[in-house]
Amino acid sequence: MWAFFHRLGSPKWFYDISGKWLPWFGGLAVLTLATGIVWALLYAPADYQQGNSFRIIYIHVPAAILAQSCFMMMAVAGAIGLIWKMKLADMFVKAAAPVGASFTFLALFTGAVWGKPTWGTWWVWDARLTAMLILLFLYFGVIALQAAIEDFSVAAKASAVLALVGLVNIPIIKYSVEWWNTLHQPATFKLTEKPAMPAEMWVPLLVMVIGFYSFFAVVILLRTRNEILERERRTRWVKDIVLSKVK
């Protein structure tokens, strides 16, 4: 495990190994997303209260879960970058921020679309919705720091600190429906409890969650690989890659 961790300190090693991971994650993403979407739209039964409008959860829930997971990954990577000075961890933070912001926006947008027929309004200052909006602003903050600070190492430290400070918002998002009276329903999946939905409804949702994570892995690997090529462009091994592609 420690050997693998130390290898991650090498951008070249990660670039080489990630190229082997990409086809697997890409294939899994296509398979699970295609299966999940068809299952959710055509075979999952309509909700007895919400009708077919509930089907938006097959996009909303995976996007919301991934938005929070991505920020936690950024915080962990930021801590690794601060403690062990690992360049690859800093590159991951920069690569992940726009992706996490996109999933957060998708969760907020689909939540608004679902909220209109369910609550009768596009938006309420509900505790969970407000905390998710703050998460989006935190992502924007990391993106802004990366764009505003030219020195990569300084930008990486500032982004890592913001990610670590913003980590306090994640438990607020998760437990907001338990700590305060909110309109938002409780978590769809709980590790300690049996799902409230029947299997024909939550199984395709689980497939979609796996699909979203697989798609996230593909995008992050591609963005991190591009960041590696940009940051290591003066090294011999990157020049060899460029020459090989030109030929």
Describe the 3D structure.
This protein is mainly alpha-helical and 247 residues long. The protein has one domain (21-246). The protein has helices at 2-7, 11-43, 57-84, 87-119, 127-148, 152-166, 169-179, 199-231, 236-246. The chain is globular. The two termini are 38 Å apart. The relative contact order is 0.17. The mean pLDDT is 89.
Order of helices and strands: HHHHHHHHH
Let me know the average pLDDT. 89
Largest sheet: none
Rg over alpha carbons: 20 Å
The gist of it:
This protein has 247 residues and is mainly α. Helices cover 78% and strands 0% of the residues.
Keywords:
9 helices, about 250 residues, about 80% helix, mainly alpha, globular
Summarize the helices and strands and which ones pair or pack.
Elements: H1 2-7, H2 11-43, H3 57-84, H4 87-119, H5 127-148, H6 152-166, H7 169-179, H8 199-231, H9 236-246
Helix pairs in contact: 2-8, 3-4, 3-6, 3-8, 4-5, 4-6, 4-8, 5-6, 5-7
